[in-house]
């Protein structure tokens, strides 16, 4: 008998779930922030979706997360914000207002949205 390549023949069904966790944080500016200046919002200065003070900003899952910043309801460009997860005095959001742009005026709402994904997959071998 000649040599043959033997292989397993199987039918597999896969189910992949992304499992997103969307968390939003809210802050109202207390003063004007002019172009060239920075606004640093500590974790404890944010309120959560229920109106409670925030204790800690969540970590970003490596390769499975992102954050968005909205000022006055407008999504901002990624390059002006720096997000640092952690507890009060560690966790914060820093917004660098570009030189020569409009100011962020007092009483402007700032919304920080953090999305983390925890993907899972299940494979079923059909026999």
Write the SSE topology.
Elements: E1 11-17, E2 20-28, E3 38-42, E4 56-57, E5 65-71, E6 74-75, E7 81-84, E8 86-87, E9 92-96, E10 109-117, E11 120-126
Antiparallel strand pairs: 1-11, 2-10, 3-9, 4-8, 5-6, 5-10, 7-9
Descriptive report:
By secondary structure, the chain is mostly beta strands. It has one domain. Helices cover 0% and strands 46% of the residues. The protein is built from no helices and eleven strands. Strands 2-10-5-6 form a four-stranded antiparallel beta sheet, with no helix packed on it. The protein has a three-stranded antiparallel beta sheet with strand order 3-9-7, with no helix packed on it. A two-stranded antiparallel sheet has the order 1-11. Strand 5 and strand 6 form a beta hairpin. It is elongated, with a radius of gyration of 23 Å.
Provide a short characterization of the protein structure:
The chain has no helices and eleven strands. With 127 residues, the protein is an all-beta fold.
Question: How big is the Rg?
Answer: 23 Å
Give the distance, in angstroms, between the N- and C-terminal Cα atoms: 29 Å
Order of helices and strands: EEEEEEEEEEE
DSSP summary, beta strand count: 11
Give helix % range.
Answer: under 10%
Summarize the main sheet: 4 strands, antiparallel
Strand order of the largest sheet: 2-10-5-6
Mean pLDDT: 94
Tally of DSSP helical segments: 0
Described by its quaternary structure, the protein is single chain
| Net shape | elongated
Overall tally of domains: 1
**Strand portion, in percent?**
over 45%
Secondary-structure-derived class: mainly beta
Q: Uncertain runs with pLDDT below 50, 5 residues or more?
A: none
């Amino acid at each position: 008998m000649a040599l043959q390549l033997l292989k397993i023949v199987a039918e597999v069904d896969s189910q992949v779930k992304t499992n997103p966790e969307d968390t939003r944080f809210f802050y109202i500016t207390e003063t004007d922030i002019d172009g060239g200046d920075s606004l640093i919002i500590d974790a404890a200065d944010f309120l959560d979706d229920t109106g409670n003070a925030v204790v800690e900003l969540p970590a970003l899952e490596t390769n499975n997360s992102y954050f968005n910043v909205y000022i006055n309801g407008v999504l901002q460009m990624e390059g002006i914000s720096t997000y640092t997860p952690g507890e009060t005095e560690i966790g914060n959001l820093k917004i660098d207002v570009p030189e020569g742009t409009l100011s962020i005026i007092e009483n402007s709402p700032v919304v920080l949205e953090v999305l983390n994904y925890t993907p899972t997959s299940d494979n079923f071998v059909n026999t």
